[in-house]
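Try this one yourself first.
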């Protein structure tokens, strides 16, 4: 099983990034997917989640209106489009797959928002 995040980097405040999470080794379409983030010295927190079909999504209050989670089950990939990024969005972003008690995590991708 592998979850590989990509798309992180350094961006200026107000900028945008699109993160990707490529999955392999399990039946991607049967797993609920989500993005989490962890800033230095803070606990890991939920950013957004999406249902198996992609029809339903939920967002952390801090991300609503400037973030879109999506998935392509044909490509075994999940995405996170983030706009109007703020310095407080700086964190390592992780993708998570869950089906019942089966939970998988990626290694994370660093997002740094700074001028």
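Now uncover the answer:
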């Amino acid at each position: 099983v592998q979850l590989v995040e990509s798309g992180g980097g350094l961006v200026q405040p107000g900028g945008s990034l699109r993160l990707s999470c490529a999955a392999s080794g399990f039946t991607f379409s049967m797993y609920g997917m989500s993005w989490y983030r962890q800033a230095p010295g803070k606990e890991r927190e939920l950013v957004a989640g999406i249902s198996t079909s992609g029809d339903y999504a939920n967002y952390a209050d801090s991300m609503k209106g400037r973030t879109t989670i999506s998935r392509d089950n044909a490509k075994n990939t999940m995405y996170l489009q983030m706009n109007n990024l703020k310095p407080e969005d700086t964190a390592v972003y992780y993708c998570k797959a869950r089906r019942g008690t089966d939970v998988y995590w990626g290694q994370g991708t660093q997002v740094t928002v700074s001028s």
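Discussion: The longest strand covers residues 91-99. Residues 4 and 96 are 10 Å apart (CA to CA).
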